[in-house]
Amino acid sequence: MILIAFYLLIACVFPDILINCDVISKKNKYIFAIFDNLTHGIIAFFSWIYYREAESHLHEIWSFSLIMEALLCAFFSCIIDIDHFICAKSFNIKTVLDYRQDLYGRPFLHNSALIPFIAILLFILLKWLKFMPKLLPKNYGILYLLCNAIEFLIPCLIIAMATHHIRDAIRRGLTFKFFLCRNFNLNNHQRHFFFLNTNPLPYFLYITLLIFIPPCLALSVKIYSFLFIQQSHLSGISQNSKYKPIHLI
Question: Cα separation of 198 and 231, whole Å?
């Protein structure tokens, strides 16, 4: 696990060394944007391997299935930047780079309040699917696959989004935007937000957070599994079922 943590540390620090040494020039916005996006993916890749090793104490760290999981986590982390194109309403990179964000700050996928919201939403969906075999006993195989997919997505999206937001935060800070209500009338259309933007994170805090997020997430999953292991079986499924029981995360 120490070796994976070291790889993650290198993934966090080495890109900034290249930038500070002017190997990757900030003056060329195109190269810098592509390099920055790839860095998000690399950090998410090693963060996921670090998480899985901390959670399961894997003996084969570089197994094919684990690498595929890590690549998917890296993809999710990279794809977050698509909200820049959506907000700019253009797929022209120059237009996106020149686009100034509105009064509410960062694009919607860079809103850090989405991380707990998405995780809780997926968790509620997972709990709801646990009881579906009572209603649809013939579709247990499909439900089994869905639950496994959601169990993977919850920590995967947390790591992908958290690592992306924290790396961006060393330049722009973290953005928390909570949608409160929307007022409609004939002449006006207003949205009301609770909006918070932090100061840029100190570099040592950026490194500390990225190093500690995977093991802390793995620890929280272990604690949950230990406390609720008796509730982790799908309701209505007998112990003699040909399918393995589904465990929450």
Answer: 39
